[in-house]
Every structure is written in structure tokens, then in C-alpha cells.
Amino acid sequence: MKPDTAPAPFSGAPPPDEAELLRRIALRDRRAFDVLYRGYFHRLSRFLERITHRPYLTEEIINDTMVVVWRKAHTFNGTSRVSTWIFAIAWRKALKALKRLGATAEITGDETPAPEAEEPESEFVRREWRERIARALATLSAEHRAVVELTYYHGCAYREIAQIVGCPVDTVKTRMYHARRKLKELLGGEAEDSR
Amino acid sequence: MSLRLFRADDPSEREAEALLAWYVNGTLDASENARVERHLAQCVRCRREAERLREVQSAVAQEVPAPALERALAGAHARLDEFDQRWRPASLMRRLAKSWRTAPLPVRGALAVQFVLIVALAIALTFDGESPAPYRTLSAPSAAGTLSVVFDSATQEAELRALIAGAGARIVGGPTSAGVYTIEVAPGRENDAIETLRASSAVRFAERAASSGL
Q1: Mutation choice for A interface testing from B14, B15, B19, B22 by most A CBs within 10 A
Q2: Would you say A5 and A149 are in contact if contact means Cβ atoms under 8 Å apart?
Q3: In what order do the strands lie in the sheet with B203-208?
Q4: Is A175 a member of any domain?
Q5: Mean pLDDT lowest for which of A188-192, B35-39, B81-85?
Q6: Distance CA A51, CA A60 (A)
Q7: Cα distance from B58 to chain A (closest Cα, Å)?
């Protein structure tokens, strides 16, 4: 089950054949590049914003990523999905950017906007809850956040996540385990367990 | 213990717990999915945990503002231009030239010495390739007055010497592995010598050694 609002980049065949787009990009076809760029822009920007928590970096890292796509399109060998390949590039670029900043990708202060005054109460509560989860997620390391984000927002299978972040599948499972435990800790009351 | 995620002693619970997030996002393969569902049917705790993960998933799904696409794409185009420019041959030459101009003097000196050495080595190798071979082929260029002769294999040493002497020639080389002798006559006497030699049944082949003469 995926949330309605989330795009599902990792499921189903996307309308333009992405592997074909990459072949054309390898031949220096700018129009194919634009199609791919537009198709990935929001997904990448979302992913990168969540990984780095630095919106001002997002655009730059997207372009770092897409320039690599332009240069390396001929090396795509079809053993993974195009989306997995591109996200793997984006992940490496994001880590590089964070490293450059000497950052551990921790959130600084409260960046969440206050809810609108006239909201219905249930919407307010829901929003509150979402903000709490967002803040809790923000305290995770970039590695843990990537697993959570790729699972819950981008709808990736754990094997795809392993390919994207370049680690064994068991590591992905372990990271998810730790991320969930951390979230439970941070969300406290909501994580009541009946044992 | 609310922070503990699974009972370590139950393998089916352990597997279900580890896979739960991907059960919720619907990406497990059929057999994994079936195993998790079997476990959920008998485990209230894991069912509740799956519910919780769904909540987390929908909370994560909230959109974050994206940068402006068109502006970002224009930026990407500029970087592609830059990259394509850089890798054009003319541009590569310009960059090489620029690197040369901006290189410190010792580096330029070292490069120059290296360049001279490489050229010298190349010249040496080239000349070595054209130096006279230790053997001579029938068509190898040679000086005037030089002939190549092949005698019948049955020819005796004495007969062979007599034939050469009779043609007014002397042996200067050979026989090669193919039985070719190089003999020398006075310049201008080549044709006479060839004729004399060819008249003998012991001579298989007699010709000017110079390929240009053929």
C-alpha cells in the first residue's frame, strides 16, 4: 500500500522507456536528457532534501547527479532499473556534499512552520503527528534516513535500496530496524506496546 | 519493553519484523509476503506494528517544497555545455597549451627533457629498423656490381668456385639459408656475368641483387 500522494517511481513501467532515454542521452541527445530530467526532478529533490536537510543544496546536487547521468549514460548496462541507477548516483553525490560541509546531516532547530489557525481539529492533529515524525526522522543519520525515505516515500524494495546505497541487503534491514527503534524512542507515547 | 522490536527466540517473528516495512510498502516477493501474512495472522503485536508503520509511511509522504524546475534545468544545461566544451578536441589542445603556459618553470623543464628523450628514442628505434639486416633477401637493395646467384644443390664446391671465377666474380656473401650467394663483379660487367652464369646447368638463378634493377 502506498500513500496516494506519493509518486511510485519504482513500480510499473514508466511511459517513456527510460533505458531508451539513456541510450539517446549517451548519443548526446539533449531532448532525451530534458525528458529524463523533468521525470526525476521532483523525486530527486524530495530524496535529497530529506537526506541533506539543506534545501539550498538540493538543486545543486540534482544537477551534480544529472551531469553524471549525461556523462555516464553509456555505462548503464541494464542490470538494474534506471531509477535505481540514478538514485545511486544521487546518493553518492548527497554524501559527498554532506562530507564537504563536514556535516552529519543533523537537523538544526525547529524548521517546521506553525499550522494554520483555521484548520479543523482532526487535520490539525494529523499535521501535528506528521511534523513530529518528520522531526524524529530528521535526527536519524543520513544512512538510516535514506532507508526510511526510500522505503516509505519512494516505495523501494529492500534489494533496490541495497543497490542504491551500495550495501548488503542485511545492512538495509538492520538500518531499518534501528531507524524504527529510534523513531519509537522519539515518538514515545504513540509507540505503546502491549506485551 | 516497548523499544524491543521482536522476540529473538521466534524465527518467524524475527523474519516478519525485519520485513515489515517492505510488507507495508508492498515490495516483498510472493513467498516473503505469504510468510509475513501467515505470521501476522497469529501475532497481534506485529499487526499493531504494521499499522503503526502505515501511519509513519503516510506521515513521511507529505510533500516538501521543491526548487523551481525550469531554473534548475537551465542550470543543468549550462553545466552540460561546459562539460561538452571541455571534451572537444580543439578545446583539449587549448587546455594543454594553457597548462603549459601556467606550469612552473621546473615542471616545464622536466617535460621538455622528457619530450626530447622520447623523440630521441623514437629516432633511434626508427633507424635501428632500417639498418642492414644480417641476412639479405633476393630483392634487397644493393650496390652496383652485386649479383645474387643460386646454384643447383648437387653442385660441388670446386665447380661452384670455377663458375664464379669464370664469370669474373668473387663471393662477397652467402650462402644464405635459401642457398643464395652474393657475388661481386666489376661495375658495368653485371649482364655479362649473369649471361655466363646462366649458361651453366648448375646455376638455378642469377640476377642483379639490386631490387631497383629488376
Answers
A1: B22
A2: no
A3: B170-173, B180-184, B146-151, B203-208
A4: yes
A5: A188-192
A6: 14
A7: 6
Residues in B touching A5 (Cβ below 8 Å): 61-63
Distance of CA B29 to the CA centre of its chain: 44
pLDDT digits (tens, 9 = 90+) for B120-162: 999 888 776 555 555 555 554 556 788 888 888 888 888 888 8
Distance (Å, rounded) from C-alpha A14 to C-alpha A124? 35
Three-state DSSP class for A189?
A: helix
Please write the tens of the pLDDT for every residue from A92-139: 999 999 998 876 544 443 344 444 445 556 777 777 888 888 888 888
Cell numbers at residue A51, please?
537526506
Which residue of A29, A36, A152, A171 is the best one to mutate when testing the B interface, meaning the one whose CB has the most B CBs within 10 A?
Answer: A152
Q: What cell numbers appear for B6 in the block?
A: 521482536
Do residues A41 and A66 touch, judged by C-beta distance below 8 A? no
pLDDT tens digits for range B3-61: 455 555 688 888 999 999 999 999 999 999 999 999 999 999 999 999 999 988 888 87
Is residue A6 in some structural domain? no
> Does a structural domain hold residue A53?
yes
Q: What is the CATH number of the domain that holds A84?
A: 1.10.10.10
Q: Which grid coordinates belong to A15? A: 511511459
Asked if the model's pLDDT at residue A6 lies above 50, the reply is no
Counted domains in chain A: 1
Nearest to B78 by CA among A46, A30, A18, A100: A30
CB contact under 8 A, A38 and B69: yes
Residue A119 makes CB contacts below 8 A (sequence gap 6+) with A127
For B146, what's the count of Cα atoms within 13 Å in the CB-facing half-sphere?
Answer: 19
Q: Tell me if A19 sits within 8 A of A76, measured CB to CB.
A: yes
Element (H, E) at B205: strand B203-208
A10 belongs to a structural domain = no
Q: What domain range is A131 assigned to?
A: 18-105+118-188
pTM over 0.80: no
Set of chain A residues whose Cβ sits within 8 Å of the Cβ of B71: 59
B54 interface with A at CB cutoff 8 Å: yes
C-alpha neighbours within 13 Å on the C-beta side of residue A3: 18
B61 and A153: CB-CB below 8 Å? yes
